[in-house]
Specification:
single chain; 18 helices; 7% strand; 375 residues; alpha/beta; 5 strands
């Protein structure tokens, strides 16, 4: 992965380059930022640059033996840890190495992948991936080995907030006394879920959303978009390239969310409780990441319809199907219910994220929607 392959983030790239040029490489970094901002890509590009045998002024050479191995994520001194769970093949105590082939495959396909995409790829989308105590043993084993070829041994921990307490405590010990020429890069979207002692032992680098200009250039080039279609996509992506990638194929990616949302709102307004319960059953069968995705999508639809209700269609960004539905629906989202609707969807997201019972959470939410739509 070259720095030049990463969308935007020019200030961060320069800061990372300067640490190498000025011999100020920290042994433990935390790349913190929102989904789709390029954190993982930046981590790999940085590690590749550090170990490049023919560094250029602004990037790795891309062709030396080290770079060629990094390009395939197959360098023997590059290690990955990421959330996993049991599936049809791995029945007990899963660790990242069980899924390393799938990891390389999906990263090379979509470097800006989400956790949801990753878990679906390895067939565990109905479970919440985590980094368990067995992983800490693998981390210690790998870091106690001598480097094979590179100057630095690199350990990249993606979604570090998914570490359980045992694994996090083991990692804390090695962060306090790291082996020489070892680089840890932790990647997180929710630092509040990380132990304070880990945060205190890492240099935190805040990765912002991708700026609109860079996003616009990338999408225009990759997907031959322009005009209103491009403006709508950039707005809806909100600095998240993975989300933009999903929205490009809206019919395949968000059609389920759209269908659920429209059915729920229609059945709630009609006070059709039996049909609402059928929808609950259907949503409860999906994975928790998809359930959270649906709730986030619903919040977006509520927000856009509220704006539309205030005759501000020029700043509403909806796709064709969404626009057609919202032409009649927007009048039901107003000052009397928008705050409470937003709160209920956010509360449901909070409880789903914390492993609450999906059927109870969604049925409770839908009954409240039924009451609020007529307020």
């Amino acid at each position: 992965m070259l720095f030049s392959d990463i969308i935007g983030q020019n200030t961060i790239k320069q800061e990372l380059l300067d640490t190498v040029k000025n011999n100020r490489i920290s042994h433990a970094l935390l790349f913190y930022g929102p989904e789709g901002s390029g954190k993982l890509s930046l981590a790999i590009a940085y590690a590749q640059y550090i170990n490049c045998e023919n560094k250029q002024e602004f990037d790795s050479c891309g062709v030396c033996p080290s770079c060629l191995k990094y390009n395939k994520l197959q360098h023997p001194d590059l290690h990955f840890v990421f959330p996993v769970a049991t599936n049809s093949k791995i029945k007990k105590d899963p660790v990242s190495d069980n899924f390393i082939t799938e990891w390389r495959e999906i990263f090379l396909q979509q470097p800006y992948m989400s956790l949801d995409m990753w878990l679906a790829h390895i067939g565990v989308e109905n479970k919440q991936g985590s980094i368990q105590k067995e992983e800490s043993k693998e981390i210690m084993r790998k870091l106690n080995l001598k480097t094979y070829e590179a100057e630095y041994k690199v350990m990249i921990i993606w979604m570090a907030e998914k570490m359980n307490e045992t694994c996090a405590n083991k990692l804390l010990k090695i962060l306090e006394e790291p082996p020489a020429k070892t680089l840890f890069i932790l990647i997180s979207e929710h630092t509040e879920d990380l132990m304070a002692t880990i945060l205190s032992r890492t240099q935190i680098i805040r990765i912002p959303k991708i700026d609109d200009t860079s996003m616009r250039q990338k999408l225009a080039t990759d997907f031959n978009l322009q005009g209103e279609d491009l403006d709508t996509l950039v707005h809806n992506a909100n600095g998240n390239y993975y989300k933009a990638f999903e929205l490009i194929s809206f019919e395949n990616s968000n059609s389920d969310f759209f269908n659920y949302f429209t059915q729920i709102m229609r059945m709630a307004y009609a006070k059709n409780v039996p049909e609402l319960y059928n929808i609950v059953e259907s949503i409860a069968e999906t994975g928790r990441e998809k359930q959270k995705g649906f709730l986030e999508y619903s919040l977006k639809m509520l927000r856009e319809n509220f704006i539309l209700n205030h005759k501000k269609s020029e700043i509403v960004y909806l796709y064709k199907k969404e626009k057609e539905f919202s032409e009649k629906f927007h009048v039901f989202i107003n000052e009397r219910n928008i705050a409470q609707l937003t709160k209920e969807f956010n509360d449901a997201h909070f409880h789903i994220e914390r492993n609450g019972n999906a059927k109870i959470i969604f049925f409770d939410l839908f009954i409240k929607i039924m009451l609020l739509l007529r307020s």
